[in-house]
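Lab manual, section 2.4: Encoding a predicted structure.

Procedure: take the sequence of the chain (450 residues), apply the prediction step described in section 2.3, and record the output as structure tokens. A sample record is shown.
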Amino acid sequence: MADNRQNYNKNYKRKMDMTSYMRSRQKEREVQGQFWRSIILLTAIATTVFLALFLFADNENFLAEHFGQDSAITKVFQKLTKGNSHKKSEEFNLPFGPRRQNILFLGVDDNGNKDNPWSGTRTDTILLLNIDPRSKSVNAISIPRDSKVYLPHRHGVNKINAAHAIGGIDMTVETVEDTFGVKVDKYIMVHDNAVKNIIDTMGGIDIYVEKPMHYNDYAGKLHINFDKGNQHLNGQQAVEYLRFRHDALGDIGRTQRQQWFMRGMLKTLKSPETIVKIPDIVSIAKKYVKTNMSLYEMSQYAAMARHIDMDKIEIATLPGAPNEKGYISYWILDPEKTQQTINRLIYREKQNINLDEEYRASVMYSSGRSTEAKVLIDQLKEIGIDVNCTGNLTRTHSQFIAHSNKVTNDYYIKLKSKISGLGGMQFVYDPVNYYCAESDFTIILTGGKN
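Recorded output:
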């Protein structure tokens, strides 16, 4: 009897440990997926308004007709486009000079108050950008909305997304600065209704829905019903498409959809039917976008965005783990690894590259990429990289994930020059290596070929 009870206890403990592990992994996937939702919901507004203006600002009649010949927006964008069109060098003159800037992007939920859509809202999306005008590069850190922090002015322990509901934008900025030891230079807040209203104003968006999507959340008032195939989505349907998360691997499947959404949005933006609607889009932005930037500052950021090197974008999610106790679900930040992430992406501390140093790599791949994975593994070994972990992984996009500080973006760029097939990957910094603890970086090859 004693042996049976002891075996039972051991099996029960293993079962509970596995359950806890699976919950932790699911939470981590959800947090990582929030970054890409941030990119779409927050970048969509700026991209729509400013890319549209740059695409068509060369047409002086368009600007004069819709904004006025002597208006500030007409003069600013005409000057910018003429400067870029008639000079060989890439020019933009950021108003704060060449120093790096920290921009806090916030996406807030809907409070149901049409007269004051900002009051009492929570920041469900928190993204800290570090922009370097000299290198034309951008680093981005996603701060999980459930992160457990101390709110200033004796408001005690709470989730970081509650700061705005309690003390508005001032408390949100102060919380981010106090918690992470950074200076927030500017902020941009985007309301949940922004994407919905802009897509409706544009007349909808064409999207290829890659699989049937059916889900109903009556409590959250979310009803998603899409068939596979080409679809023309209105604003509400676009939000539903972006919010769908019931894939086999949780939020991971949303990444590819959000990229398709952006491509579809930019394609719609270039159509003649959309051009004449730009003043209406600007009007929506005025209502649902809140910032302490001037029009001139935003126009200069838009000018800079045209010259950003996509290979110089580095992203990260602040590392941590979900708590397993209590009634409130917190994301408990890992202090040491969070500081490592801040130092690397915000303060841009990095080691010098030494390609002769010994590096260890993991290669993960989907079933449709096994042949390419084998070739990649052989190529890595040929240049002296120890491939100490390989395995099958179901993902929707490829990534290059740096785990060590000695694996920089510059290292990745040099590695691409030596190995074919590494181009176009998303560069991610993650000091927590879930694939193989001894690897300096992980390469993920996904997307089976037909």
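Check your result against the sample. The CA atoms of residues 4 and 10 lie 10 Å apart.
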